Design the sequence.
């Protein structure tokens, strides 16, 4: 089981788009330093606030379901960020 998880996380990491690239694209597109910092701060705040409750949910309904749901949300958010940054600031 451990080996499957590590292989899955490794594959995800190799194809994961970095937050820094999205922030650099926003900066390159004309967003102020303050707003870029605010976006990153907001992202980390949301991450920190939801970590514990999502862990409790994973204990209740199962890790696999929560993980699959999380990957889906991750994909939607990153697609949205890329689309918004590209369309608004290009």
Sequence:
């Amino acid at each position: 089981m451990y080996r499957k998880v590590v292989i899955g996380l490794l594959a995800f990491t190799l194809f994961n788009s970095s937050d820094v690239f999205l922030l650099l694209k926003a900066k390159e597109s004309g967003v102020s330093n303050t707003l870029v910092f605010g976006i990153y701060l907001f992202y980390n705040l949301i991450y920190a606030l939801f970590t514990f409750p999502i862990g409790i949910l994973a204990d209740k309904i199962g890790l696999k379901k929560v993980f699959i749901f999380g990957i889906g949300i991750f994909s939607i958010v990153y697609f949205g960020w890329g689309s918004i940054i590209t369309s608004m600031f290009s």
In short: The CA atoms of residues 8 and 74 lie 15 Å apart.
